[in-house]
Amino acid sequence: MNALxxxxxxxxxxxxxxxxxxxxxxxxxxxxxxxxxxxxxxxxADPRTLALSLGSVQLLERLGVWGGIQxxxxxxxxxxxxxxxxxxxxxxxxxEPEVVISAAEQRxxxxxxxxxxxxxxxxxxxxxxxxxxxxxxxxxxxPVQAIxxxxxxxxxxxxxxxxxxxxxxxxxxVFSEQSRKAVTHDYKQNAWVGTVTLSEDVPAGLAFERFxxxxxxxxxxxxxxxxxxxxVWCMPQDEDEIAQLSDAQRITVIQSLLPxxxxxxxxxxxxxxxxxxxNAERSLVDGRSIRIGNAAQTLHPVAGQGLNLGLRDAWSxxxxxxxxxxxxAALRRVQWQRAPDRWSMIAxxxxxxxxxxxxxxxxxxxxxxxxxxxxALPILRKTLARRMMxxxx
Length: 393
Fold this sequence. Notes:
The chain is of the alpha+beta class. The protein folds into two domains: 5-43 and 120-181 and 279-353, 3-Layer(bba) Sandwich (FAD/NAD(P)-binding domain); 72-114 and 185-276 and 358-390, D-Amino Acid Oxidase, Chain A, domain 2 (2-Layer Sandwich). It contains nine helices and 21 strands. A hairpin with a 2-residue loop joins β9 and β10 (153-157). α1 (13-25) packs parallel to α6 and α6 (306-323) runs antiparallel to α7. The longest helix is centred in the last third of the chain and has 29 residues, at 327-355.
């Protein structure tokens, strides 16, 4: 492809990864990276939790930034259902249906990793700013005010209007603050997020996803000592009384919902609340603009795949630009390639999120049968594990 003027709007993990990939793979491209935050703002302390799949870890290794990052490898994932559910000694010591996916069984070093947002964005940004190349431009400190199509390209207005061959929109945000896209649904659920301190007898690297009557409850292992885990606790808004509970009461409720192997909760941080919903574009591409990650699809956190989808979007786009003869051909290729992965993940998370609002008789038993089937059959566990680690490819 001839020289390409590429604009990337949003310097979060997906946008920065795309910028680094493009800088390496497209040696003739002029790449401008836009973000509203000042370049000298310290982002390293941002505590938001990110869950990365193995495929995402491998991509970051290719970029040369993973080695110095403090992250907790995920060695096992336990998925189970709290009562009411099927119960049988055949399901194991707890008598409940569960799926256990382990790195050892899948013959990989880890299934993925958990880390703080700032611990990923800071080294990605440092890697970008270290690149000494006149064709790479950093436009931080001025928000992009408008993106509009023009003949043969797109115009970006961030105080000064500039024309590019292609604009990649990588600014996502949370569901409650987004304008509504073509495919949208308000789940009427809240996610309470924070951290919990665990007893030291819980092995490092264990992640838990617990299906409760009200919604999923997840613990994601965090690096460092003492033993801690990120908490994602989903509740229907019309039954949500979490704000009125004390820390001791919150610990008691969460403990009652978790399986025994999750150990004992010793403490809990301040929790933040976010409204949950689906907000997705039907098409990634609009003229010479393309959306990736949360800018293309904001999902329920039940599968923890939002950022992983964004990194796969970034990889596919750069590969298409590298191989195609022109921008439009590359965009058609990405649109076709990414559809199975993104729509299967949208459908799966949407179904699970909606199912927690259903109060049909027998639904917990049916969900338990599904878990029991996956837990009992190695081929199903392997298929699920591959989807978790690498998406649909």
